[in-house]
Amino acid sequence: MKCWQEDLLDIVFDDATCELEVFRRIEDAALALGFDHVAYGFQSPLPFSRPKITLLNNYPRSWQERYNQAGYLQVDPTVAHGRRSQESIIWADQVFMGAQSLWDEARAHGLRVGWVQSSLDGLGAGGMITLSRSCLPLTPKELDAKQPKMRWLVQVAHLAFSRLLRCKPTKGFRTLSGRELEVLKWSADGKSAQDIADILSVSKSTVDFHVKNSVTKLQVPNKTAAVVRAALLGLLS
C-alpha cells in the first residue's frame, strides 16, 4: 500500500491527469489534514506584461463571487506575501491590517482559520496553496504534526499544475526542431548568428532561417523574445 506522499505523486507524473483531477486530489489531501477548504493559484510566467493566473478553490460559491466582484485578488495580503516569499503564513488580524474589509467578509463567509504557502520556481512560474477552515485555531502542536505534509502538498501541487499549465502550448503552437533549439541555446549564450554558423558548420543564412522559424512557431516578435519564451517553457534545459 502506498504512503500518503507516494499516492499524491501520481498526479505529477500521470499524463492523463487533468487540472480538475489534480485539484480533486489536492482537495482530498486537504480534507485529510483537517481543513474544510483549499484554494490553489497558479501564475504563469507568460505573457510578461500580464501573466496568466489560474485560480481553483472549493470555497462557498457566495464567497467566490464576492472575492471576484470586489477584486480582492489585487489587495489580498496573503497573495502579496506569496509572490515574494515561500515562507508559510497563518491568517491573523495583523496579516489583514491593510485589507480589513476582505478579512471581515471572509470570516462572515465562514473562512476564519487559514495557512498559506507558495512555491516559486526558476522558470518564473509561481503557485500558492491556502488551507482553511471555519473553526479550531491552528495550534503549535498541530502545526508540528501536520506542517511537513502541508508543505509536501504545496510542492506536489506546484509540480503538477506547472506541468499542466506552464508548458501548455498556445493555440497554433508548433514544436521546435532539434536544430532550432540548438540555435536558440547558442543565442541564449550570447552568440551572434555568425558565431553560431561557425560553431555548427553551417551558413549564416541557415542560422537566420532557423531563428525565423523559431520566432514563428513560438508566436513572438523577435529572436530575443523567442529565446526567453523557449527558456520559460523549459525547452532549453
TrEMBL record:
Residues 169-234 form the HTH luxR-type domain. The keyword Transcription regulation applies. Keywords: DNA-binding, Transcription, Transcription regulation. It comes from the Bacteria. It holds the Pfam family Autoind_bind. The keyword Chaperone does not apply. This is Autoinducer binding domain-containing protein. It comes from Variovorax humicola. The lineage of its organism: Bacteria, Pseudomonadati, Pseudomonadota, Betaproteobacteria, Burkholderiales.
